[in-house]
Amino acid sequence: MxxxxxxxxxxxxxxxxxxxxxxxxxxxPDVDPAQQRQNTFSVGFADLNESxxxxxxxxLDALVADLGSKSTNxxxxxxxxxxxxxxxxxxxEPAAAPLKPAKTAEFSxxxxxxxxxxxxxxxxxxLQKLKEAKVRKxxxxxxxxxxxxxxxxVDERQTVREVLEKLFEKTHCDGSIDWSLCxxxxxxxxxxxxxxxxxxxxxxxxxxxxSENKVYFxxxxxxxxxxxxxxxxxxxxxxxxxxxxxxxxxxxxxVKENFGGSALIxxxxxxxxxxxxxxxxxxxxxxxxxxxxxxxxxxxxxxxCSTDLVCFTxxxxxxxxxxxxxxxxxxxxxxxxFLLKHPCIQKExxxxxxxxxxxxxxxxxxxxxxxxxKYGTVLYQNYQAAVKTASTWQTVNKANSHxxxxxxxxxxxxxxxxxxxxSHV
Length: 425
Hints:
The protein is an alpha+beta fold. It has 18 helices and 13 strands. The protein has helices spanning 4-15, 18-25, 33-39, 48-54, 57-67, 69-75, 80-92, 101-115, 119-132, 160-171, 201-204, 225-228, 231-234, 240-243, 248-259, 326-330, 360-375, 377-400; strands at 42-43, 137-144, 149-155, 179-185, 190-193, 214-219, 270-276, 283-290, 294-297, 310-314, 319-323, 337-341, 353-356. Helix 5 (57-67) crosses helix 9 (119-132). The two termini are 32 Å apart.
């Protein structure tokens, strides 16, 4: 398609059919959501049995207790009906009346039998109860920057922030606001950091059954850069030298003005980006403008007046991803690319929008400004919660470092590098 305007019109027309085509975007057979709910229990493992074996004993016990309280009673030889009958009998009997010796001995023996069940028995019980569970749960392998991993249980009610706090406990890291959970997609060579308010099970459930995607626990210094250095986004037209001299008080004022009011103010970002043509390894420059509702572009022969702007994409149903080695993969003009796609799209698709920046600073501006526009004040609430958590963990770590019975082994300073080949944007 030689005419860039015709290409844009085609893209915008195709977007009308996106919701009907998502199931086919990955060239995968249709999957019944109910069936997927029943069959998908783990992420990062060959099968569910392997994932359960990788759970620590205390996590497995907690899972069994959570999923199988009724099954536990049955394993002890006490049915729900028997327990209910026993309770009613005790209500009718005097408070001081002891349980019958035979019953007490039988119950204690059953409890001891359950406590001494092998891990294999507990896994068998967990497998059964997972299939019956009303609340969806995933066993997730989370990779660390040093090559190790942690296995955690996550249910659909847990946010990324709650999962991060669980990982803080397991890794004894510093609880910094920079810690993130990131997903990587090797096939598309992309990655993104989950936002702290997201429910982790939801995006992971969009992965295909035999996906090679991975979840990383990494430190991303640019995660909340818009609150630490708001001048980069709200005063971006000024020279960088003048921005570096802004004091902390001025930064806090910028944050308050743009995030603390009744309505969020989105950075008035605009500039030339390179757009990859659909189905081709050809990139063409176009002038883009960021708005609260989406990204707009200036059609050929038009002015930058708001009445002439045409919508390129809206943010409601897309997420933003950083890329890796797109100069080699797609002949991008630079290595500083990002893309916008629906989370359900896991393979090559015409519904993915590729954009390329001239330099790393421009990439930083666009990626994080889009996050501000997409998530609004929720992003600021995430930041405030992260600061509070970091303060708590610093206090805990300081207290632990002075414990008398273990004075020479303070919590390890666990700061793994980012995933290989991935950026921190």
